[in-house]
Amino acid sequence: MVMPAYGSGAQPTVWQPDNLDELQALKSELSGKYCYAAGATLLRTQWEGGLVPVPEHMISLARIPGASGVHVDGDDLVIGALTRLCHCATDVHLQQLPLVQSAMNAIAAPSIRNLATIGGNIVSGVGDSIPALLVYDAQLYWMTDNGMEMRSLSSWLNGGRDGSRNPNEVLISIHISMKNTSFSDANSERTSAAHEISFYRKLGRRETFTASLVTIAFYGEVGTDGRWNKIAIAAGGGSGMAMRLPESEKLLLGSEASIVQASALAAAVVSEFVTYRDAFATEQYRKQTAGNMLGAGLWEALCS
């Protein structure tokens, strides 16, 4: 059994399992009196703010093999959950997913991105990477009590809404299919036949190092006939849970790509986006801002 790395007194005991078998054994032995840690940037903020108690035990995921780095596996681009945000922002493979790299560069400050991980950003449930990953139909690979399981990011987010999510599960990697997309090298005919339009936007309370008020992502493909043959739109921000916007997607899908769609898209997003109010912004402000950002982004993309 793995031994604790350190911990005494009021500080949590930190455990560092070397593999998934040791991690599974620790989960059983510690009986829920623990939390997982990778970069721990969000955890420290929560502890200092008194939002969550300091746990009795921490399980570091840093030594788990295969949980760091970016690589290609068949048709999938795989991002280890422990990959630092700074690495994701510059990785050559992720240049094929520009919205993900845009999101990485919009999160916190460089010093935080040097420590924080993409898995931690996702598991927070409200990370700014989530809208970008949603439009790429990301799949999440989890270690569960029943073994390894793959689930879509959308279904995992829904588990947070209906209370079915299990906090004891461990995110190992993120998988994004590169098949049947305009940025896939595996289908050169389709690559030449589809024009990709994508953008990511984050609005915060100040220019840098701030939680977002609204975050949006848009991915679309226009065929040789000038019509949208693929559309994916997502919105989130702040402490609200990001979501895909299927009704707004249907508004564009199959129609001719045109700047006149910008205002209709903005109105559809305002109607569909489910968000919240707090001390910084009303629910209507967030809805209207998401609509304006997506409408303006579409207008700019089609004018360029």
From TrEMBL:
GO molecular function terms attached to this record: FAD binding; oxidoreductase activity
InterPro entries in the record: CO_DH_flav_C, CO_DH_flav_C_dom_sf, Diverse_Substr_Oxidored, FAD-bd_PCMH, FAD-bd_PCMH-like_sf, FAD-bd_PCMH_sub2, Mopterin_DH_FAD-bd
Pfam families recorded: CO_deh_flav_C, FAD_binding_5
Keywords associated with the record: FAD, Flavoprotein, Oxidoreductase
Domain FAD-binding PCMH-type, chain residue ranges per copy: 6-181
Origin superkingdom: Bacteria
PANTHER family on file: XANTHINE DEHYDROGENASE SUBUNIT C-RELATED
Name of this protein: FAD-binding PCMH-type domain-containing protein
